[in-house]
Automatic annotation (TrEMBL):
Name listed for the protein in its UniProt record: LYR motif-containing protein
InterPro entries, A to Z: Complex1_LYR_LYRM9
Membership in a protein family: Belongs to the complex I LYR family. LYRM9 subfamily.
Protein species of origin: Mucuna pruriens (Velvet bean)
Length: 79
């Protein structure tokens, strides 16, 4: 559970790097996804964390933000 909360907080930090007019949409999207997956089977969590990281990279790329901004998230999700 702690890992999920750390990942959630880090993704929200990345959302703050996005253009101002997109932040509310993506913050809501992130929250809904984390709420929907809180009942996940523990064996599926690693896949979910990997997807979280990959989707974050895609979003950063979409808005031309350097992917190194997600290094902390990589440390949380990919260990």
């Amino acid at each position: 559970m702690k890992k999920a909360l750390r990942a959630y907080a880090e993704v929200l930090r990345l959302v703050r790097l996005l253009p101002k007019d997109t932040r509310a949409y993506y913050a809501k999207y992130v929250r809904e996804n984390f709420v929907n997956y809180r009942e996940l089977d523990p064996s599926d969590l690693d896949d979910h964390f990997q997807r979280t990281y990959n989707h974050s990279l895609w979003l950063l790329h979409k808005y031309s933000i350097d992917k190194s901004a997600a290094d902390k998230l990589k440390g949380i999700c990919c260990t």
